[in-house]
Amino acid sequence: MRKGVIGHHPANPNYVVYTSYIRQSDLYVYSQTSSDGGNTWSSPTVVSGHSFVRDLVLGVSGTGYTGGLFIDNAGDDSGAGSRVVTSRLVYEGSSWDYPVAEQIPAYSLGLRRLPSVVRTTGNEYLFGVGIDNYGGNVGNDTNAYSLFWAGTDFSGGPVSVGLSSETDNPTYCQQVAFDPEVGTMYYLYFDNHMEYETDGGDIFVIQGSYPATCSGPAETRVVNVGSNQRPSQGYLFKNIGGDFIFLYALEEGPPANPTANTLYLRVGPGLNDLQYSTDILVESALGVPTNTNSRYRTLYAAQDGSGTIHVVWQDASGTIKWSKIQTANPPYTPTTPVTLANNRWLDSISVGEMEMYVSMVEIGSFNGEVLKVPLQ
Asked: Is the distance from CB of 103 to CB of 127 less than 8 angstroms?
């Protein structure tokens, strides 16, 4: 198995959807559901209309419908020639709708990378994906798009984030975020402005009015680093009535052979304050994201209804850990990490009010697993 993604019904946590892709002669997508919180599962069924899936994300709405975004038809593990498609699974259904192509690359080297998703308000979700038009060796050719999921259908098609014309191949970090208080959406991305990705880079944020417009190329830098440092895997949250809370990994050393990968937390009253905030150490040996087996993330974070942020990561030894960041009573000090599993690759998390689901793959056997973690 290459990757599994988990999601569960926000109003009925016993209903769980698990979608994975498996390497056979091609990369096929399989879907399974559970109605008892993951104790028993339906037989896996092939999600039709896909070939050589590169990556995927999904969200389950309060209606029980599942919306999924898939990157497929890639020529190889670089993602060359890949397209962006969306599909849905009706509540308690067994067959996904035939996928709808949202984007087809105009060039054979075009890459679609790092899909992400965030639950926004009500039954709605915001999806995002990075676009590299000419491949990893060409500059000034990268953009990003968001897609709105209304809980039953995708609406309006892809919306351009409008990245700067100087953006170069920001494949280390792409992530959508949302502030429900002011209806603002955010897009985080890595960029090294005309240096390609052979040296260093920074993380920027572009914001827009939810769900249909972004304000690019006006950007705010939230992490500013030096040579041979690459910030990545960013997650942005907003405390109700208060601060921005930002998590990111800092990879150091040569891109092909990193020497360190550290997980940090930053807090600031505004986006502009984040790049000057003091880093709070969360993990000193975060796993390094690589192309191996199509894996790009070793860190996932999500906020529950109380505002608590749940951070789950895989360290360099293959141990999956979990820490909580309470936002009700600053300062924002992460709790002591709890070990959830050993010898595993982390694939995704789904956070509810009373439980968290963690999907992962056993290193060596490639067996997919789903772990249910009580939150209280």
From this structure: no
151-170 pLDDT, tens digit per residue, is 999 988 899 888 876 776 65
Region label for 135, one of left (φ > 0), alpha (ψ between -120 and 50) or beta (otherwise): left
| CA–CA dist 302, 317 (Å, integer) | 23
What residue ranges do the domains of the chain occupy? 3-374
Query: Is 19:33 a contact under the CB 8 Å cutoff?
Result: no
Phi, psi values for residue 80, rounded to 5°: -60, 135
Alpha helices for the chain (secondary structure H): 271-274
Helices (H), 197-337: 271-274
Instruction: Give 43's pLDDT tier (boundaries 50, 70, 90).
Output: very high
Whether the bond between 170 and the residue before it is cis, its omega within 30 degrees of 0, is: no
CATH of domain 3-374: 2.120.10.10
In degrees, to the nearest 5, what angle opens at C-alpha 238 toward C-alphas 274 and 279?
A: 35
Give counts: helices (H), strands (E), the chain: 1, 28
CA-based nearest residue to 28, from 47, 55, 44, 6: 47
Find out whether 126 and 145 touch, Cβ atoms under 8 Å.
Answer: no
Contact 50, 29 (CB under 8 A): yes
Task: Round to whole Å and give the CA distance between 171 and 232.
Answer: 9
* Contact (Cβ atoms closer than 8 angstroms) between residue 211 and residue 275: no
- Residue 158 · residue 146 · CB < 8 Å: yes
| Whether the predicted model's global pTM rises above the 0.90 cut | yes
How big is the CA angle at 160 (ends 157 and 163), to the nearest 5 degrees?
A: 165
Residue 200: C-alpha distances to residues 76, 243, 252 (Å): 26, 28, 9
Report which residue type is found at 110: G
- Residue 161 in 3-state DSSP? coil
